[in-house]
Amino acid sequence: MEEIEIPTNNRYNLIIKALKMFEWHTLLDLGSADKYGMGLHNTLVANFPDKTVIGMDKKDNDNVDIVCDLNAGITYKDSGADVIVAGEIIEHLQEPFFFLKECHRALKTGGILILTTPNATGLDTLFGSDYTCHLHLWTLPMIRRNIESAGFEIMQCRYTSYWNRNIVFRMLAAIFPRYSTNTFIMARCIQQQVR
Question: If DSSP codes are grouped into helix, strand and coil, which group holds residue 92?
Fold first, then answer.
């Protein structure tokens, strides 16, 4: 069973651990305004002070370097980023496949996409969590297929749970991972398409 942690810290720890697995210089943190005060952008900057972490969001605040609506595309040059972190963002976007293709375009060949999203088969979804702000819900196989179709090779794909108080849900998710609250995917940009 996963260690009991503050829910968002579990996601942060997975992302930080993944980023320490390879060499990189420039990271795009998509959805960096931290609408819910989760602080991923600050965590990335604090853990990687010698790297370039560029925050992007449609809302402007201290964590946003480039203001852009991700529904319209990623305002960044082709093949310019080593890493894109898209934590809890794809479920809010109008055209998720277009978003994944934009991630592919903005990443260098061999660049890494780290994506997390709520799990459509998670117990919290099945028992009525309010996801009215989500335009899409994803199962792990669905999001995996879309990421692969957008030109990525899956490196790591797993369920993860962010519960810190509901021991019953935590135990059920440990026994039956498909009932976990979220999915975590790390994928490599395998080649840039000729335009």
Answer: helix
CB neighbours of 18 closer than 8 A, spacing ≥ 6? 112, 114, 156, 186
* Pair 195, 174: CB distance under 8 Å: no
- Please tell me the distance from the alpha carbon of residue 38 to that of residue 17, in angstroms, as a whole number: 18
pTM of the predicted protein model: 0.89
* Per-residue model confidence as pLDDT tens digits over 105-138: 999 999 999 999 988 888 877 776 666 677 888 8
Cβ contact 88:116 at 8 Å:
yes
Can you name the CATH fold of 7-81+96-114+135-164+174-189?
Rossmann fold (3.40.50)
Per-residue model confidence as pLDDT tens digits over 12-54: 888 999 999 999 999 999 999 875 545 688 889 999 999 999 9
Q: Is the CA virtual torsion 95, 107, 114, 28 positive or negative?
A: negative
